[in-house]
Amino acid sequence: MKSREEEYKEIFIAEALEYFDALNRHISDLEKRPQDEQILAEIFRLLHNLKANAKAIGYLNISDVSHKLETAFSLIRNKELSFSDEVVTVLFEGIDLLGELIHNIDNASYGDPDPVLLRNLDIIVDNLSDSTIELAKVQRYNTSKNLSLSELVYIQIKKLDHLLNLVGELVIDRDRIVSISRELENDELKNVSSHLNRITEDLQYSIMDARLVGIGSLFNKFPRIVRDIATAEGKDVDLTMAGHDIQIDRNILQIITDSLLHLVRNAITHGIEKPENRLKKGKPRNGSLSLIARNDRENVQIQLTDDGKGIDLTQVRKAIVERQLLPASTVEHLSDTEALSYLFEPGFSLAKEVTEFSGRGVGLDVVKNAVDSIGGRIRIESQKGKGTTFILQLPTSIAVKGALLFEVDEIFYAIPLIHTEQVVALEVEELHEVGGVMVADIFGETITVVYLHELLNVKEQEMNLGDKTKLKGMVQNIIIVSYNNRKLGIIVDKLYRQQDIVVKPLSKPLDAVELYGGVTLLGSGKVCLVLDVPAITRYFISRKQVLAGEHNF
Amino acid sequence: MPTKKDKALETALTQEETAASSGNGKEESAKIKVNEPLLHLIVFKLGAEYYGIKIEQVKEVTVTPSITRMPRTPDFIKGVANIRGDIIAIMNLEERFGIRPDTSVAASDLTYTLVIEAKEYSIGVVVREVPQSLNLAVSKMDKTPSFLQDIAVQENYIEGIAKVDNRLIIVLDMFKILSSDEIKQLSN
What we know:
The complex is a heterodimer. Chain A is built from 18 helices and 18 strands. Chain A is an alpha+beta fold. In chain A, helix 1 packs antiparallel against helix 2 (37-57), helix 3 (60-77) runs antiparallel to helix 4 (85-103) and helix 10 packs antiparallel against helix 16 (364-373). The chains are: A alpha+beta, B alpha+beta.
């Protein structure tokens, strides 16, 4: 594997060469149609990008020449410099020089660009439309140009999506073949299948790798955005960022782009106080906002922290009761993180009190849905007066997920690992029937537990989520899942193993069934249902409420 | 995909031969006048009645593969099955239409699945007996039988009634087989 710098350099060179080709094309067009504003604008744009990219990566020669050319073209655009023959010659030479500099980035013996040509460029820029007599003859550069094609190809993301789908299918078949070859005890088949196994894995990871982009490609847009929002709000905000190099699937990044923008906007407009208020509170005048990406096991974590006014938990608790999401008695005992998780309820933040006092704006449920849709997690930490942190945990890749496999009532299920906290085995005596549900003390924490068979397979009218006697056997396998800061224990019949699975989305019309995030095919050829933890949690809560309601009347 | 379609036709054709040996399909096609456009149906039994689906809507006929139940979906969804790498929903039309199963025939372990390609989705339909292929003249199908007016609007999945040799074949429009209400029901 090449280092990141090496990869960036290659991308820069390839892009720069493309710019160079485009510049050559446009300037030739311009020579024929000097009045064409559109061509001028395009040349201007290309030079500007080239300058910025070269400067960012540290090729000052290139950025310098681009800058000079850009200035010349801006003069032409403003009609301060005529597109005369002499000027055209210098500009052509200047662009050729750019090409040569780009080609020789790796060539240490190349030396400095031709000073005569640089002087010529300066002259046309400085002397404006004056006589151009002083222009010195430069030695013709590209007398024998080498034609070469770019090292980089652009590819539509759609094509990569298709490749990834195909590889997903291949992996499923591979698992099947590996499993058959184990049963058949044929040495030759075993060799072939283990080779197939390795190759497929390689292929899969290569394609996943091809889809990865640096988070920087999104982060780099934020300094400007933050500045604009802060200016509009009359606030001063210092943005710090880290983890530009962290790699993530391009589609995942695309899906969370709006969410991240939303959160950043919220943090500045509602979180960070105006300078005068900050000074009154003894905070530094400038608000600080930090955007940090890091790798967390197989996932990517993005953390957005502001040092604004934070969220007032008493107001949140009050709003939970007012919106009748929970009775007052329960809310009192809600932990802070649990209470904060209610901010993600649809429409919750519309509550006037919350927007006024804690100031978290509309649409956190939209953010949550986006994160859910790619199988990620989001949580809030906040301290009143000190600030708020949003933590997004995102999978690196869409298609392949680590998952826990289990069986309930002879159906195979999988739960993505990103939603599982831990797996425990408890005796039936350790489960208690409380208020129509089962609870258990798991490592000092009281967690609601549900028998998945009861939740999924018993008729809704006959469902009894608090009846221990329905459990089979003495020892119960419980998978603790977590969604929106709320933990739920799921009792399964048989627990199998942890495995990387390729999730196939359900096709229409089944894609409307929320409980399942998709299916996967096991090595045995059996279909395994992938449970959607957010939907299961929601379903459990809604059933619990229905059952509790029946109890009261 | 054209290849799969061909395969479906092939299956259907072989079944046409079986049908002919039992004295059904080919006789019909023989009677058809030249020049008249043909309707090619795949015919199967639900309850005690015959139903037909236009062959263009049938992608494939196969022995029902093993079905994985999907809890909390409507009863007429039997579950999902893996058919040539595609995971599709398998539906029981008898339950969908509330048709009494024919108790006079002993239930067999072996059932058949018609893979239907509707506009937006593929879906499998389980039938008890080998489906047959049947050609008939378009004029043999009554597109607007008067009784259709007595049927509620949401039941307009019946495209027409074909009468062939004293047999009544109810022709289904598979594009309308799952109403939007039912898709909504799926999501609840």
